[in-house]
Design brief:
By secondary structure, the chain is α/β, with parallel strands linked by helices. It has 15 helices and twelve strands. It has two domains: about 160 residues, Nucleotidyltransferase, domain 5; about 190 residues, ATPase, nucleotide binding domain (Nucleotidyltransferase, domain 5), CATH 3.30.420.40. It is globular and about 55 Å long. The two termini are about 20 Å apart.
Length: about 375
């Protein structure tokens, strides 16, 4: 799995059966700098068709080299690929993930499942979120309302409300930006020397600009009802370059910028909970790269506890799952479901008209 942060690849080796996912090992690898630069260019619509085709194959070869070197011992592979475009518009939806799967199939001599999002989109859905099934299996708890919130480039939540009934009531959607804007700002301010706000150190030194924050929180995406998904197209380079001018006029220091963007991620998350999750959760489980940023976690916790002081905010490690393994393990589960010809989308969360088989198999 490589997410909207475009920082690297997360691998997870899992033992999977119906209703069970057991993590055996996990690891991460950063993208080579030049490849990362090209991926960012593709995601920002600064890539010609020839370059995009070359990038698709170069990325596929990277996945294959890393997987072969690491000798994962897998019998089946789920490859999400790198999203460079995601448009959930109902009239003409489209999504594109790069990373040619043929190289993995050739290197490992096992079937590879990829292109997970297309079938849900063809059935009228947004192709996201797709980790919901994994969250349900691993994190749902009887008599509790648990929310699993992944903090990648984009923030997405899965609400598992199981206070009554035989099965939890499920709602899942994107809440807006998590790391993407912070990372863009950090790369610009440090001229590429830092790709993220390590330990939230820059945010801790800055002051939040409430006027700019109020402007950003008025964005129509936050009031839009689920199902909904978003990406860098809405909260990426275009947003950053437009708002950077206003930050300059407001005379924000670079630390103030990072503090304000961090607060934006936290408060937009809480705003979505308030607007779209009528039952207040008992527990919020944070995962993804942003869960390792103590300043972001602290601001999310503060924003959520304004809704309910008794709410528990924890990390996925408290449930026995490392933060960086969650998304990769989710696609291991989806690969298993596709291999067994079991539908794995949840229409009420993606907006699809029916359940479908997710992914295309290359063997």
């Amino acid at each position: 799995m490589s997410g909207t942060s475009i920082d690297g690849v997360d691998y997870a080796l899992c033992e999977v059966s119906a209703g069970l996912v057991k993590l055996l090992r996990h690891w991460s690898r950063e993208f080579p700098k030049e490849l990362q630069r090209r991926l960012h260019a593709a995601a920002a619509n600064r890539c010609a068709s020839h370059e995009l085709a070359q990038l698709n194959h170069d990325l596929g070869r990277l996945f294959a080299r890393q997987a072969k070197q690491l000798r994962a011992g897998a019998e089946l592979v789920g490859l999400h690929g790198q999203t460079v475009f995601h448009n959930p518009d109902r009239r003409a939806p489209a999504t594109l993930q790069l990373g040619e799967p043929a190289y993995l199939a050739e290197a490992l001599c096992v079937p590879v499942v990829s292109s997970f999002r297309a079938a849900d989109i063809a059935a009228g859905g947004q192709g996201a979120p797709l980790a919901t099934l994994f969250h349900k299996i691993v994190f749902s708890r009887r008599s509790e309302h648990v929310c699993v919130n992944n903090l990648g480039g984009i923030s997405n939540v899965t609400s598992l409300e199981w206070r009554r009934g035989k099965h939890p009531r499920i709602l899942a959607f994107d809440t807006g930006p998590a790391n993407v804007l912070i990372d863009l700002a950090m790369r610009e301010f440090t001229r590429g020397r830092q790709s993220c706000d390590i330990d939230g150190a820059w945010a801790a030194r800055g002051r939040v600009n409430e006027r700019l924050l109020a402007r950003w929180l008025a964005h129509p995406f936050f009031k839009a009802k689920p199902p909904k998904s978003t990406g860098r197209e809405l909260f990426g380079e275009t947003f950053w370059h437009a708002e950077k001018k206003r930050m300059r006029v407001a005379r924000l220091t670079k630390f103030d910028v990072i503090a304000t963007l961090t607060e934006f991620a936290a408060r937009s998350l809480a705003l979505n909970y308030r607007l779209h999750l009528p039952p207040i959760p008992d527990c919020v489980v944070l995962c993804g790269g942003g869960a390792r940023n103590p300043m972001l976690v602290a601001r999310i916790t503060a924003a959520l506890k304004q809704m309910n002081e008794a709410m528990r905010v924890c990390r996925s490690e408290d449930f026995g799952w490392p933060t960086q393994a969650i998304e990769a393990a989710a696609f291991a589960l989806l690969a298993y479901y596709r291999w067994k010809e079991l539908p794995a989308n949840i229409p009420e969360t993606t907006g699809a008209s029916r359940t479908v088989l997710l992914g295309q198999v290359m063997s």
